[in-house]
Specification:
This protein is of the alpha/beta class and 505 residues long. The protein folds into 3 domains: 278 residues, Aldolase class I (TIM Barrel), CATH 3.20.20; 94 residues, Recoverin, domain 1 (Orthogonal Bundle); 109 residues, Double Stranded RNA Binding Domain (2-Layer Sandwich). Helix content is 39%, strand content 21%. The protein has 17 helices and 16 strands. Strands 2-3-4-5-6-7-8-9 form an 8-stranded parallel β-barrel, surrounded by 8 helices. Strands 11-12-13 form a 3-stranded antiparallel sheet, covered by helices on one side. Strands 14-15-16 form a 3-stranded antiparallel sheet, with helices on one face. α3 links the parallel β4 and β5. α8 crosses α9 and α16 runs parallel beside α17. The chain is elongated and about 85 Å long. The two termini are 50 Å apart. The mean pLDDT is 90.
């Protein structure tokens, strides 16, 4: 069984994601988390590109425990010197990744160089790098835009690089041009032609094939795979997603038969959350593996199957990547009795018999024909209307949120009332409106711990009059709870969602 090595380029290619500008401190935080996941190789940056990249590479080399650190460098003197300066403080972990463009488009329009000139340059700089990094057994070379490079010339360039010190050859599908079987055939031939060389694959996602192409390369014998952690994907449509590739290898060991025991899956979701907060990029709800809706079901057929055995429609458990969520069915006009029954049982701890669920189901289906989005608060109203005692333990009699322009902050006033008709006034001051609301709820709960783990706002339709859908995930005294609420006002929707949360304590 061959071991697969994980090469993460989130801090280099991923950092090129449009509208993302990672500081040195940002990169260091991500490096620490990647190291906890036991990523084998981290391309910590492009040393010559910025001081932030240089500092991140230098920190990574001196502080990581599990990963070895790469700096990218063009075949240019200043790039190689900068890379060396950033890496030199820990030579046992100091690796370099150099590259040159090889396709006709890049040769003719960008470099304005002939094939012979490129071959000469590769020979010259590989010798230089081999001398500069003489201790390293892992000098990596990439012929950029390899999949649009003539095959005979591609093999020539690789041959020159290998003969002059390249230990690893990385094959970049720079613009996501390749098709899966095309990648498979190329990588298989390269592995057979250069049996003493390690090969790496670097796929972009312009045509949506990055993960499939990466997996094809592994099947062909590639041992090192390059990718980024979502949501840092890189230029344009980005790179292959590490989590998707790794979970494919884990779930289909029967097909790939490779050793991935070196990876620590439990830190994957923590890393995603960290990168989301640092980069201000959110994973879409329906995104594979780590999207919230991947672990949700609205179809009655799926809800029925999952209620009997989760593996009927869930091949990935959130627990596999330590994604802590509240398992719940989403109720729509596609849902049926079983889904409604399970949702009521989980949410309200109410175990209805067949006749009871039939009566509630009629009212539920009538509601789904009128409303586009059903919340569990709607289901509560149906149950209360059907004489079930599910009145809220806590209500809000009055609230206001006032923006204080002089203090550059927000004051939230809320009057709470419990089921004993006891009232309590809370005043909360915070910098942001929604956090001011959360702080008021935390004050009201006093001895209970309310920790907001995730908060998201969605506009329901494209208009300035769009309604706000709010999603909250919270830890309440060690238990994960999730809530949705909809309103014209974002703050009011947040209050409603938070009120529903604390009524489930």
């Amino acid at each position: 069984m061959k071991k697969i090595y994980f090469f993460d380029t989130s801090l280099r290619d991923g950092a090129q994601t449009p509208w993302v500008n990672l500081t040195a401190d940002d990169k260091i935080k991500i490096i620490k988390q990647l190291d906890l996941s036991k990523i084998d190789m981290i391309e910590a940056g492009f040393a010559v590109a910025s001081q932030a990249d240089f500092d991140a590479i230098k920190y990574a080399v001196e502080n990581t425990e599990n990963a070895v650190i790469y700096s990218l460098a063009r075949m240019v003197d200043i790039d190689i010197e900068k890379a060396y300066d950033a890496l030199k403080n820990n030579i046992s972990k100091s690796w370099i990744h150099t590259f040159i463009w090889t396709s006709p488009l890049h040769r003719d329009f960008k470099l304005r160089m002939t094939k012979e000139e490129i071959l000469d340059k590769v020979e010259h700089y590989m010798k230089l790098i081999s001398e500069k990094f003489a201790w390293s057994e892992n000098i990596m070379f990439s012929p950029e835009d390899a999949l649009r490079t003539e095959k005979d010339f591609l093999f020539q360039v690789i041959d020159v690089a290998v003969k002059n010190g390249a230990k690893i050859i990385n094959i970049p599908d720079t613009v996501g041009y390749a098709q899966p079987f095309e990648i498979y055939e190329l990588m298989k031939e390269l592995v057979e032609t250069f049996p003493n060389t390690k090969f790496s694959i670097h796929c972009h996602n312009d045509l949506g094939n990055a993960v499939a192409n990466t997996l094809s390369a592994i099947k062909a014998g590639t041992l090192i795979v390059q990718w980024t952690f979502p949501p840092l994907f890189g230029e344009r449509a980005g790179n292959a997603d590490l989590i998707q590739v790794a979970l494919n290898l884990k779930k289909r060991q029967d097909y790939y038969n490779v050793d991935i025991s070196n990876i620590n899956f439990e830190n994957f979701y923590k890393t995603v959350e960290l990168i989301e907060n640092i980069s201000w990029k959110k994973i879409p709800e329906h995104y594979p593996i780590v999207g919230r809706l991947v672990h949700s079901h609205s179809s009655w057929i799926h809800q029925h199957g999952v209620s009997k055995n989760k593996q009927t429609y869930e091949i990935i458990s959130p627990k596999e990547i330590w994604m802590h969520i509240e398992q719940s069915f989403i109720l729509t006009n596609q849902s049926w009795r079983e889904g409604l029954y399970q949702a009521i049982k989980q949410y309200f701890q109410l175990d209805l018999d067949k006749d009871q669920i039939n009566k509630i189901f009629e009212k539920f289906k009538d509601l789904t024909s009128k409303k586009r989005f059903i919340t569990m608060d709607d289901i509560r109203n149906i149950l209360v209307d059907s004489w079930y005692d599910l009145r809220k333990k806590i209500n809000i009699l009055w609230w206001e949120t006032i923006i204080d322009f002089n203090e550059d902050g927000v004051v939230t006033n809320i009057v709470f009332e419990n089921d004993k008709k006891e009232q309590k006034y809370i005043k909360s001051y915070w910098i942001w409106p929604v956090d001011s609301v959360f702080n008021a709820f935390k004050q009201y709960l006093e001895n209970k711990i309310l920790k907001i783990l995730d908060f998201q706002i969605y506009a329901l339709w494209l208009s300035s009059q769009a309604k706000a859908k709010v999603y909250i995930k919270a830890d309440i005294d060690g238990t994960i709870k999730e809530e949705y609420a909809i309103d014209d006002d974002i703050v009011k929707a947040s209050i409603n969602a938070c009120l529903n949360l604390i009524n489930r304590i």
